[in-house]
């Protein structure tokens, strides 16, 4: 899990002074419109900074994960042969999401993004999820306990790490370790909770953001998304 406030970069020579200035401009997006980091980053722009996402043209560097997905009209592919990194460095586009670029004019659009992420956690419980584990229905039909067994295996694998994190036994903490420790200090809880209930707020949020961003056409119930054997599991 990671915060995405630092995923939005801009060129300081572009005339952009605040996130709201992105309206009416073209913003690059690494890979597809549906990629998770882009969804979370756009939600931050909308819900924390009041950006009207429909007034931004989103310029994609890659294809979508789902071939039949049709993006909204303000989502367009990059011109063949062009790279978002070069376009941002040259100020051809003023900003981009989820790219890596070391350039003196390119900075995080959100000041002190690391602390902004922690503040969002404190203020509204914002703590993004990026991945889930998927099992084919045919396997679940053959092995009904498979989903629960996988869940429990991941819980057991996680437990030693959380114990080391709680007791400061990680000799050289990585940036990720440090983030999880801060989350633990802020929430007083496991920074990597598994299961629907401890993650319900974020699951419902990302479904809502996907609706707002025209990625999906209708909301989903938890029961429609997760295997029956895992609905009540927490770890």
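Sequence proposed for the structure above (235 residues):
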């Amino acid at each position: 899990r990671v915060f995405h406030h630092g995923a939005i970069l801009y060129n300081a020579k572009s005339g952009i002074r605040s996130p709201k200035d992105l309206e009416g401009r073209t913003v690059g997006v690494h890979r597809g419109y549906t990629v998770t980091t882009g969804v979370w980053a756009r939600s931050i722009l909308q819900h924390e900074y009041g950006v009207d996402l429909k007034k931004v043209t989103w310029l994609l560097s890659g294809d979508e994960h789902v071939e039949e997905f049709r993006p909204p009209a303000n989502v367009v592919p990059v011109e063949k042969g062009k790279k978002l990194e070069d376009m941002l460095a040259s100020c051809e586009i003023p900003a981009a999401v989820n790219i890596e670029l070391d350039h003196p004019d390119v900075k995080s659009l959100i000041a002190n993004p690391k602390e902004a992420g922690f503040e969002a956690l404190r203020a509204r419980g914002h703590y993004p999820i990026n991945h889930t584990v998927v099992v084919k229905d045919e396997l679940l039909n053959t092995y009904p306990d498979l989903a629960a067994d996988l869940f429990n295996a991941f819980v057991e694998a996680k437990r030693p790490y959380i114990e080391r994190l709680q007791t400061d036994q990680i000799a050289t903490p990585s940036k990720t370790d440090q983030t999880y420790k801060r989350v633990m200090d802020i929430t007083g809880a496991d920074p990597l909770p598994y299961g629907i209930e401890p993650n319900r707020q974020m699951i419902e949020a990302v479904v809502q953001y996907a609706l707002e961003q025209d990625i999906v056409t209708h909301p989903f119930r938890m029961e429609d998304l997760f295997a029956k054997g895992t609905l009540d599991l927490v770890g």
